[in-house]
Amino acid sequence: MTPLSAAADIDVCICTFRRPSLALTLETVGCQQLPAGVRLRVVVADNDVSPSAEDLARSTAARLGLPLHYVHAPSRNISLARNACLDAVEAPLAAFLDDDELATPGWIAGLLTALQETASDVVFGPVRADYGPDAPRWMRRADLHSFEAVTLADGGVRTGYTSNCLMRRDAIGAERFDLALGQSGGEDTEFFFRLNAKGVKLAKAPLALVHEPVPASRARLGWLLERSFRSGQTHARLLIGSGAAPGRAVAVAAAKFLVCLGASAISAWDPARAARQLVRAALHAGVVARLLGLQDLQIYGKPQVR
């Protein structure tokens, strides 16, 4: 494991697909309050068929004085873009941030602190949703768009996401994101689960906060249900890969689906609580669907979702 004192350079990787918000994301990277000796370079992987983000990325980085490596990774496959970022990384450490997220000034410092204090290979910071004025009250209360890494009973973290993370390049090695999941989503969950199974240590970085504005297209119960259903399909893939008995896994997930569905109905008087249970029911429904052979939902490559 490379000592942090020798890892002063960090490559911040951002995959993008037709999002003008990339400029704001880059601005928050340029405003980081960096520990002494830490230097950043930005790697932008453009996943559009044409290099539509190149001019925006280059002009914004130049205005901010941010070193930039731009790479065109066409095909509307998010795994391909993430792999292009990993292939372009030269620094000992690589951070990932989404092209619609806003990093707080202490983001990088929080990631570095957690990496050092936990002696981990990868750390994940929390993502907090910023709701617009038209978002329903129940949605603000339920806050289902925010997320953070799940801590297990033993205190460990088994998987994570690329929305807010920092990783040691030497711990990742030649591992790459699965191209077969590049349009369905869940490729980052599978990637970090696979790394953890090979001994890569994962941990949380509670102080490394980023914000994610919630557009009107996502401020819908239907979008939350679709995302949760797809997450359930990813979880089913992990169950299969771990050697779980399909029949028992289907029975357990189906039972959880019915319990959550019932809890949602009972909680109808409280829209926020009912929505939480309904979204959990959608996750278990996704597990059942994938275990029974239903094709994964296609999430990426659609401008209104990416």
CATH architecture of the largest domain: Alpha-Beta Complex
Q: Count of DSSP helices?
A: 10
Query: What is the number of strand segments?
Result: 10
| Mean pLDDT metric | 92
Q: What would you give as the CATH superfamily of the largest domain?
A: Spore Coat Polysaccharide Biosynthesis Protein SpsA, Chain A
Q: Given this structure, which CATH class of the largest domain is correct? A: Alpha Beta
And the CATH topology of the largest domain?
Spore Coat Polysaccharide Biosynthesis Protein SpsA, Chain A
Q: Quick one: biggest sheet? A: 7 strands, mixed
Strand content: 15-25%
Distance between the termini: 35 Å
Largest sheet strand order: 3-2-1-4-8-6-9
Task: Give the low-confidence spans.
Answer: none
Based on Cα principal axes, name the global outline: globular
Reading the helices and strands in chain order gives EHEHEHEEHEEHEHHEEHHH
Query: In the residues, how many domains can be counted?
Result: 2
Rg, Å, rounded: 19 Å
Description:
There is one protein chain. The chain has 2 domains: 8-214, Alpha-Beta Complex (Spore Coat Polysaccharide Biosynthesis Protein SpsA, Chain A), CATH 3.90.550; 221-291. 41% of the residues lie in helices and 16% in strands. The protein contains 10 helices and 10 strands. It has helices at residues 22-30, 54-64, 78-88, 107-117, 137-142, 169-172, 187-197, 221-241, 246-266, 271-291, and strands at 9-16, 39-46, 68-72, 93-97, 102-103, 122-124, 127-131, 164-168, 202-204, 210-214. A 7-stranded mixed β-sheet has the order 3-2-1-4-8-6-9, sandwiched between helices. Helix 1 packs parallel to helix 2 (54-64) and helix 7 (187-197) runs parallel beside helix 8 (221-241). 42% of the residues are buried.
